[in-house]
Amino acid sequence: MNSLIRFSLKNVAAIFIITFLIILGGLYAITNLRIEMFPDIEDPTLTVEAVYPGASPDDVNKNVTTKLEEQFNSLEGLKTLESSSYESFAMLSLNFPNNTDLDKKEQQVNKLIEEANLEDSVQTDVKRFSMDMIPIYDISIFAKGDTDLDTYLENNVIPDIKKISGVNEVQVSGQKEGLVQITVDQEKALQNGLSLDHIKNQINEKYFSYPAGQVEADEFQIPVRVEQDLETIEELEDLQLTTQNQQEPTPIALKEIATIEEVTERAELTRYNLKDSLSMMITKKQDANTVEVADQVTEVLKKHEEQIDYYVSFDTAQGVKDSVHTLVREGLLGALFASLAVLLFLRNIRATIIAIISIPFSLLFSSIFLLQLGISLNMMTLGGMAVAVGRVVDDSIVVIENIFRRVRRSPDKKITDEIITDSTKEIFKAIVSSTLTTIVVFLPLGLVEGDTGGFFLPFALAITFALIASLLISVTLVPILAKYSFKKAPKEEKEGLLQKIYGKLIERSLNHKVTAILLSLVLLGGSFALVPTLGFTFMPNEEQKILNATIELPATTSMERTNEVSLQMEEMFVDKSQIENVTAGVGSKDFFTGLKKENKASYYLRLKEDTDVSEFLKELRGDMETIMDVEADEGEFNVMEFAASGPPTNNSVSIDLYSTDLEKLQSAALDVEEYMKDNDDLKDISNNFSETQKQYLVDVDSDKAGEKGIPGMQILGMITDQTRPVQVGELNLNEENKTVQLSYEDPLSAEALEEMEIYGPQGPVKLKEIADVKETDSFTAIQKLDGKVFARVTGHVKGNDVQAVTNEVVNGVKSDIELPEGVSFESGGGSEETTAEFQQMGIAMIAAMGLVYLTMLITFGKARIPIIILSSLIFVPIGSFTALYLAKEPLSISVMIGFLMLIGIVVTNAIVLTDRITRNRDEKGMTVREALLEAGKTRLRPILMTALATIAALTPLAFTTSTGTFISKGLALTVIGGLTSSTLLTLILIPVLYEVFFFRQRKKERLKTKDLSM
């Protein structure tokens, strides 16, 4: 310790060079940190997508989903397995514990898929879920002049965007799709014994390219390839087909039985403020800088402004910039307020500058380590830095205040190396132990599982690195600057009024210990009485200025009809003065699943900044309901605040219903849905098991079909041939790749289905003679959780008391809803997850206090001293709960992190005071009472200075109304309130408790004093 201080004083140039290099490194680091909204968290989840063309949800569930579930259940460590079976498509989500080796799990999943013996037509794909799957940009694009927008985007804009190193994927919706449509005359085809499949196969026979071995030439092995091409539409028209129902088949040209034409169609419709557009979504790579990628995309779009117009529907990069700007602003304001607080006590500008120089140095030092660890500059790291601003000046304040105090008591009042060394050494144990205790409280965050630990770990690291830097600078640079900034110490001030009042107060408290302790306990009990009024949530809700709305018509609705209803909805949106712009997609694919629903339209609604979102949502829901009641009474709609990514809010209530009877399950889910919609504390109610669609079931009579010699698969093939277009594939025609599709002129009607003729060995037979054709209702999706079919009804809590609302809903479902026999339910959602997270945080806080005790035990070497210091934590809730109550802020995970921080911050003041008391007794031989009074008066200024600096630094965060600070706000209020109450009570109760713990020593001293006075 001595050597470090002496080294600094003797090697001033070296210290300044090292400091300068750290500042340069910090500036480099902070300008090269990736800028994100939130920390990178890889959710340990794998998704398996399976495409089973033409299969119903029931068939997909039976032949794909169930087989895969049986295989995946053998995976070690699998937490939950959720599956959804749709028409032609299945998605399974496998969730694993944190720290799972997903590379290994992905290999195991792929192997299990191979062992599932799925049909050859089933195609599977395994993906990892990541926050970076969520688009950072949604851009509506329009053509200028006579620009062919589809072609220009495909050939110019998209390639330029894909060249950006951080771009992962570009997905464009609303593009025209070129198609070669072969419309077959069914009657002529049947006369020649040709089905759509026959025609498809014969086209593909004339268009192939395959390797055919090798030949030797000049000592080389040269590969041989045989290919046959159809190069033009005319060649396709003249293609000779072989007939199937004649003894001597005669060729017939395709154009004789079919019309061939190039058509252009849009598989999905996209609009911006009622104008047709293309919609471009962009995702970034996981390690890419969101802001940098967004800026580069904007530059590319600007480069093409002569050919295209564009408008941004949503832009996560702008949200990142706004949050960063807000936190930087609040951090700078905090630094300014902290500086003013220090200046208020030191009353010397140079001394204040020396004390606060640790702020920029610590933050730059922290940035170097964040860059090396690959941690981004996000809301959590910036929040950590903003919170650290008030704490990092503490060590420097204590050091410089102690130097000046020692100099003032020296004979010549001059600052010398010896005095600087002795005064820094005197305070070294106190600042090291206080800094270490603040650091060790964050170590238990590693014990917190789930997203909480992942989100708050960068926050803790940012503070930890800053505190290490503040400790180093306080014992190296601060003494040097003090030496060269002052020839003499500032004039010593007489004992002020505050110290006199404090001296009398502490003496009175020592004489009335029981009263002081009881009064403190009464205040503590009163603060806990406020807890039920605070509310209980995982993360406070924050209003979003972008809404996500959807409408979904009955499952069999055509896209044309969906578009008609959507246009009316969009016109209503555009007429709203609160809405800035509207982006619409009709029949668009879901970005995550790739599912396309022609009966669904979705919208992004960007609101104006002054909009009251809660009130406007009520108005909007009413207007949407009016349109749906008139245009699509059986349809559904929803509108909610948009949430692209971020920390888990857990502000939801879920009711999971289980049953093997799908009709009873649907009925129960609808009852629960209606019940939850009537609850004014809930919004955005969703039901995953509400939609059915009509279908025709062809129930083949095996006996009758067998008598006619017609196998069931032949019936299936012939019905499919007439009810679904056949995809031939992609052919290179007229020097362009064209998708080729076969279909009949007139689609098969429901009435014609029964009259359809099936050809067998005994001649044609009508379908109704060998099968029963009936209309039924079927579910559009089958959802399963851990292999059991379930329905989930979910609602988001409007306020912040998630637990109370959850309990009300769960108890209401139990008592007010009579579930059908065979239907069971479980409650879930945010409340259970929040409770689990809070329990983990509670364990982390207990572990933190244990580590703090251990650290102080090593530092002080006495078991009683750490207990006295830790007792200052008991009264933290008094101020914290009061501050939260006055600010109407709920208990949340950020509040818990605030309490965790207070463990480190509050004991700092207690350590500074207790260290002085111990020194007075051990080194100066003072009695317990003398040591307490002298230490209290001596340490009053630094304790109040450090506490006020921390409170002042956090004030901007506590009272901000800006978005993007919801995590830091609860934390700041907790720390400000807790630090205020604990500082005031520490100054009174630490001396009281100290004398209680050393009552025997105090008793001996009193008796000795009494004997001497006699």
Characteristics of this structure?
elongated; six-stranded antiparallel beta sheet; single chain; 31 strands; alpha+beta; 1014 residues
What does this structure look like?
With 1014 residues, the protein is α+β, with helices and mostly antiparallel strands. It is built from 35 helices and 31 strands. The strands form eight sheets. Strands 1, 2, 3, 4, 21, 22, 29, 30 and 31 form a nine-stranded antiparallel sheet that branches. Strands 14-13-18-19-17-20 form a six-stranded antiparallel sheet, covered by helices on one side. Strands 6-15-5-16 form a four-stranded antiparallel sheet. The two termini are 47 Å apart.
TL;DR?
This protein has 35 helices and 31 strands. By secondary structure, the chain is α+β, with helices and mostly antiparallel strands.
Per-chain topology:
Layout: H1 2-10, H2 12-32, E1 45-51, H3 57-72, E2 80-86, E3 89-95, H4 102-115, E4 123-128, E5 137-143, H5 149-162, E6 167-173, E7 176-184, H6 186-191, H7 196-205, E8 208-217, E9 220-228, H8 233-237, E10 240-242, E11 251-253, H9 254-257, E12 258-266, E13 269-272, E14 275-276, E15 278-284, H10 290-303, E16 308-315, H11 316-346, H12 349-356, H13 358-372, H14 379-409, H15 417-440, H16 450-475, H17 477-485, H18 497-511, H19 513-528, H20 531-534, E17 546-552, H21 559-575, E18 579-586, E19 600-607, H22 613-631, E20 636-641, E21 652-658, H23 662-677, E22 682-687, E23 692-700, H24 702-707, H25 712-723, E24 726-733, E25 736-744, H26 750-755, E26 757-760, E27 763-766, H27 767-770, E28 771-779, E29 781-785, E30 788-797, H28 802-816, E31 824-829, H29 830-860, H30 864-870, H31 876-887, H32 893-924, H33 928-959, H34 966-997, H35 999-1013
Parallel strand pairs: 7-25
Antiparallel strand pairs: 1-3, 1-4, 2-3, 2-29, 5-15, 5-16, 6-15, 7-12, 8-9, 10-11, 13-14, 13-18, 17-19, 17-20, 18-19, 21-30, 21-31, 22-30, 23-28, 24-25, 26-27, 29-30
Helix pairs in contact: 1-15, 2-13, 10-11, 11-12, 11-14, 11-33, 12-14, 12-17, 13-14, 13-16, 14-15, 14-16, 14-33, 15-16, 15-29, 15-32, 18-33, 18-34, 19-31, 19-34, 21-22, 29-30, 29-32, 30-32, 30-34, 31-34, 32-33, 32-34, 33-34
